[in-house]
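Quarterly update from the structural biology core.
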Amino acid sequence: MDKIKEKLEKLRIEAEESNARAQQYEQEVKDLKAKVEKQETEIQSLNNKVTLLTADLERSEKRADESTAQLRILEVKAEHHERKSKQLDGEKTELEKKHDELKEQHASLKSEFEETLKSLEAL
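Predicted structure, tokenized:
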């Protein structure tokens, strides 16, 4: 009978130890589930950030493309104005040259006219 009591006591101790291990494992499972849930929340948060950053990147790329297109237009306009400026400078140089020539002709004709007047007065 003592052997049966010892055996029952041994089984009771083993059952208590098994229950304690089961409770420990259940707690570990709860902790792991909480950890997984927290990580899933963090992943969802990161996915949301990625989505927002992707949308922001797309907007930035669109603005960059628009700015590049506007820059190209401005460069073409600047080249056009530069060519026009060079053309006008050339025309200005030609007109100044012609002005100088006309000024010389005027001085020559004036001198000739004055000489003619003097010779007419002398007559």
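The radius of gyration is 52 Å.
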